[in-house]
Amino acid sequence: MWFNTGLYGIKLVIDDKGYPTVENVVADLKAQCEKTCTTDFEKAVWFNDWLVENCRYDSSYSYCAPEGALARGSGTCEAYHRAYVMLLNSVGIATDRISGDGHVWTGVQLDGNWYHIDTTWDDAGYEDNSVDLQHLYFGLNDELMNQIHSSVTSSNGISAHSLEDNYFIKTGKIKNGQISM
Fold it and tell me: Which domains does the chain carry?
């Protein structure tokens, strides 16, 4: 980090493995993910699951940057979104910023189609053994997201029409309208 006071400049370098940079956290998670995941779908699920398991929603609204979600384990929807974007982009997956009703989540391109993935809402903060809450908002299309949020806006104008890479459909966990656990 470079500080310039006008009279002199100071270069500050913090190299402490106990406090890694966001870039180092992303590089480490990318390496872990790529050990077991080969497809973009698998990588997107792996990063979603990592965020859900390692981050909690910051109701104080103190942590809105990816640093909050990746290094502090706490963040707002903006932090979840920005962290997820950094992780996905590190493995070459295209993303978009989607917002609606004062909330933000991620547009993700998988297998040539765009999907809505909301890592914040996938992290419900509680468990319900009758529903897989960790993947409930993974791979939704515009029609479903418009039922959840009355005002959905993509920063790049993407449209999500497919459900092919919806978590429950792709994994076969939904059949005949029933979700199996």
Answer: 19-171 (3.10.620)
